[in-house]
Structures are given as structure tokens and as C-alpha cells.
Design a protein that fits this description.
The chain is 83% helix and 0% strand. It is mainly α and 303 residues long. The radius of gyration is 44 Å and the shape is elongated.
Length: 303
């Protein structure tokens, strides 16, 4: 009996010791979680969490400010003051982003080891990196739009400024073409016009390229299209000018007038034939309707 009680006591003792060991093993965390942190480590983790949250809030605010509307009222051109304001705004936003970027990289490198020990903090870091990229893409897009607006405004000003220049240029070239001795001066004017038209073409292409980036510039581009077509025609006329005797000029004028007259005569002749055919068809239809009415619906063959 004593042996049985002793054996039962030993078994109960072993069972208690085994349960104690398992309880101690379960109490040791597999990860460095919050429960295993010292008060100092917990305070540091809370501080890091607060700083990451602040970085996230700053980036969200910058994103909201960066989504500004870049459409401008350009029906009558873009004032220099508008371009300057847009450029200053984008410069300020880009500087703010660069400041946050440097601040974030410095802080992350300093706290990288502490952040790596927490899955929650690593998740916050990944979110901040994605947000940073989104903000940068937005600012890059807006910066490109502002640069396009600035280029369009410069091209607009140049093209409009050349309207009177081309009028005076053609007048001067035409007068020089009337005197044979002034032919060298005429060639100089034509050479100057070629250089000027090259600049005009480049500015016009620049305006079209900017309009592709900022479609709201399209209404103003239509005005530039018309002015460019006019000046291109003037350019071709200037390059075609040369000295001709008075008789040759009169001959060319008469031949040109005659060509126009022939075209008009041909057009009028075709128009008269068309009207005659249209009238004949109407008369024939009227005659058939009359026959059908007199015959009480009987259809008569027509030739």
C-alpha cells in the first residue's frame, strides 16, 4: 500500500514538472513582439510609429496640393505673370518633396534596425514608399505641364509678334523687285526672310507639341494656325519675287487674270448645265404626274 502511494506521488510530481516546463516554453515569444519589449523599447516603437504616421500625413497633404488644375484661359494669349506664378508654385512643391525625401531617407536609415523588428512598421514603410512614388509621379506630370505652358506662351508671343514684321517685309521686298539695280538688296531680304521663317516654323512646332501635353491650349492654337498659314503664304510670295520688266509684269498679270477668267467661265458653264438638267428633270416629273392624273392612275411608258 505504501509503495502504491509512493508511486502515485512520483507520477504526480513528474506530471507537474512537465506542465511547468511547457508553460515556460509557451511564455517565450517566437518573434520580438510588443509583449517581449522593455519599457524603453516600447517607447521607442511608439515614437517610430508616430514619426511614420507624420511622414504619411505630410505626403498625403503634398499629394492633395500637387493635384492642382493646370488649365489656363489662353483665348487671347497667356500673360507672363500667369506663367511665372505656375512656375513658382511647381518649384515650391518640388522643393517641399525633396525636403521630405531627404528627411525620410535620413530617418529610415537611422531607425532601420528597429523598424525591421516589427511587421507593422515594415508595412507602414512599404505604404510610405508607394505614396512617395505616387507624389513624385504627380509632381513630375504637373511640372511637365507647366513647362509646356511656358513654351507655348513663348511661341505664341513670337508668332504674333511676326505678323506686322511679315507685312513690312513683303512690302519692302516688293518695292525692291521693281528696280533691277536693287536685286542684290532683294536677295538679302529674301535670305533674312528664310532665317525668320525657320524660327517661325520652330516656334509653331513648339506650340503644337505643348498643346499635346496640355489640351486646354487648343483654342489658342487655332488662332496661331491661321496666322502661321498667312505668314507661310507671305514667305512663299517673298521668295518668288524677282525683278521683271514692266511689260513682263503686265503680261503675267494679264495671263493670271485670263486664267482666272477661264476657270470662272468653265465653272459658270458647268453650273448652267447642271441647272438646265435639274430643270429638265423637274419638268419631266411634272409631265408624268399630269399623265398619271389624267389617266386615273394608269401608268404610261416613258421613253
Amino acid at each position: 500500500m505504501k509503495r502504491s502511494l509512493l508511486l502515485i506521488g512520483l507520477l504526480l510530481g513528474l506530471s507537474f514538472m512537465t506542465n511547468s516546463v511547457q508553460a515556460q516554453e509557451n511564455a517565450v515569444p517566437t518573434d520580438v513582439g510588443s509583449a517581449a519589449l522593455s519599457p524603453e523599447a516600447m517607447a521607442l516603437r511608439l515614437e517610430v510609429t508616430a514619426r511614420l504616421t507624420q511622414f504619411s500625413d505630410d505626403l498625403h497633404q503634398l499629394m492633395a496640393v500637387g493635384k492642382v488644375n493646370m488649365s489656363v484661359d489662353c483665348m487671347y494669349g497667356i500673360p507672363k505673370s500667369v506663367v511665372t506664378t505656375l512656375e513658382q508654385r511647381m518649384q515650391s512643391l518640388n522643393q517641399e518633396y525633396n525636403r521630405l525625401d531627404v528627411k525620410w531617407n535620413t530617418y529610415y536609415q537611422a531607425q532601420q534596425m528597429d523598424i525591421a523588428n516589427s511587421e507593422d512598421l515594415m508595412t507602414m514603410v512599404a505604404s510610405i514608399e508607394e505614396l512617395k512614388q505616387a507624389v513624385k509621379d504627380t509632381l513630375d506630370s504637373k511640372t511637365e505641364a507647366v513647362e509646356a505652358i511656358a513654351k507655348f506662351a513663348a511661341a505664341d508671343n513670337f508668332i504674333i509678334s511676326q505678323v506686322n514684321v511679315y507685312k513690312n517685309l513683303y512690302s519692302k521686298a516688293f518695292k525692291l523687285s521693281l528696280v533691277q539695280k536693287l536685286a542684290p538688296q532683294l536677295e538679302k531680304v529674301k535670305a533674312k526672310e528664310q532665317v525668320l521663317f525657320t524660327d517661325l516654323q520652330n516656334n509653331y512646332n513648339q506650340a503644337k507639341a505643348a498643346c499635346e501635353v496640355v489640351p486646354s491650349l487648343s483654342p489658342r492654337l487655332e488662332t496661331l494656325d491661321k496666322q502661321f498659314v498667312v505668314m507661310k503664304s507671305v514667305s512663299e510670295n517673298v521668295q518668288a519675287l524677282e525683278y521683271k520688266p514692266l511689260f513682263q509684269r503686265l503680261k503675267d498679270y494679264v495671263m493670271g487674270f485670263a486664267a482666272v477668267a477661264i476657270i470662272l467661265m468653265f465653272f459658270n458653264g458647268m453650273l448652267a448645265k447642271f441647272n438646265a438638267y435639274k430643270q429638265k428633270a423637274a419638268s419631266l416629273k411634272k409631265y408624268n404626274d399630269m399623265l398619271n392624273k389624267n389617266g386615273q392612275g394608269t401608268q404610261y411608258p416613258t421613253i
